Amino acid sequence: MVGSFLTAAIVTTNVVNSWELYLLYRHRLAHQTNVIPEAFRADVEPEAFRKTQEYSMDKIWFSMVCQVKNVVESTASLLALPTVWYGVETVARQSGFFPAGLTRGGFTHAYLFTLFADVTSTLLELPFSYYRTFVLEERHGFNKTTKKEFVKDTVKSFFLRAAVLDPLVVGLTTGVVKVFGEKFPLYLFGAAATLTAAATYVFPALIQPLFNKFTPLPEGTLKSNVEALAKSLKFPLTKLFEVDGSRRSAHSNAYFYGFFNNKRIVLYDTLVKQLEEKQILAVLCHEFGHWKHNHTSIMFVVGMLQLLGFCYGAQVALFHQQLYTDFGFVAGDQSAVMGFQLFSVVFFEPFSTLFGYLMSCVSRKFEFQADAFAVSMGFGQELRTALYKMQDENKSSITPDWLFAALHYSHPPLVERLDALEKEIKKSE
């Protein structure tokens, strides 16, 4: 008999995924227009608009296929959880690799279960990832990844998860719950928050270089002007890198990372090639606007509050026997790792979806503020031109569905962004 918690999880998962599928359907309909928005008619050629629409339509269609896959995969995984959990234990016991015995729900059992789930997920995702890279992106001229690079990336990503992330997460959850029992939330939050903060340094310094080459920006006017701009704003710039983004894709980007007085800026080589020097400075001035308004710190604090809420919410579910038996687990079996997973699928994921919609709205407000800061620094026209160029080079959507954009876009639709820019420029004149 299917338990009420399992029923709730299946219904909620399918409702959320169906809603997301509907949003994608709306988004695709919005891109079937052949009419260039008025704001772009003077700057976007009809042929370029046609290619942009085709690229957006292909991406949305592929996202819809992936969404259907997610519905099937999520439902199947919910129904199979106890079978896989006990199956992994049985195979491990019969393998002979654990002569000292295997504790059900202990670190080894939980890690092997997590590893099996990771392998399964990777294999199921592989054909979709291959299609995205070598069919969709290739068709529209963005893919630069070789098949050898694709295989290397997939293998490296998996082994990093299997050797570092999975044992770290499993060890942390099982260890903290075992030591502190029902008093675990604050201790788990403290440990997880510390690791999250450390990851902001470890990931760009140790992990990203395994996939891309980061080189100091060459000496020249661009470097000296970036450093001068940072100095004028008292931005604590310590290093300035150029990354070989063109190694995998023609898409462009720029970002900074680091806490306190240790900030580093990364420019994609594609961005350096696509934009003129003043336009790059305008894009970076926008990024400095995020720093000036403490947007990164605010988002980090919000993320920590969400993590704290997750820890305390999981406390209720983790020791709730009915939750386990409703999913088909044997009475008395209460594992920390499985408890967190059940809490996630029944309670946290629906909340996270709604919270994500809210944070998209907050993020868009921050983008407007960062744009306004760039205008106040005298880079309004250069930022406007840079946005047009980046839209053209990346074939970014200019006819999004309003509802999809409202719930999912972290950046304002380009029409709205340019309109706000024009108003800020006029105010500054």
TrEMBL record:
Its main location: endoplasmic reticulum. Zn(2+) binds at H286, H290, E367. This is CAAX prenyl protease. Its EC number is 3.4.24.84. Residues 28-213 form the CAAX prenyl protease 1 N-terminal domain. It is found in: Endoplasmic reticulum membrane. The active site is at E287, D371. It catalyses: Hydrolyzes the peptide bond -P2-(S-farnesyl or geranylgeranyl)C-P1'-P2'-P3'-COOH where P1' and P2' are amino acids with aliphatic side chains and P3' is any C-terminal residue. It is a multi-pass membrane protein. Its cofactor is Zn(2+). One of its GO terms (cellular component) is endoplasmic reticulum membrane. The chain crosses the membrane at residues 158-180, 186-207, 298-318, 338-359. Proteolytically removes the C-terminal three residues of farnesylated proteins. Residues 217-424 form the Peptidase M48 domain. GO terms for molecular function: metal ion binding; metalloendopeptidase activity. GO terms for biological process: CAAX-box protein processing. Binds 1 zinc ion per subunit. Keywords: Endoplasmic reticulum, Hydrolase, Membrane, Metal-binding, Metalloprotease, Protease, Transmembrane, Transmembrane helix, Zinc. It comes from Bodo saltans (Flagellated protozoan). Belongs to the peptidase M48A family. It is an enzyme of class 3 (hydrolase). Pfam families: Peptidase_M48 (PF01435), Peptidase_M48_N (PF16491).
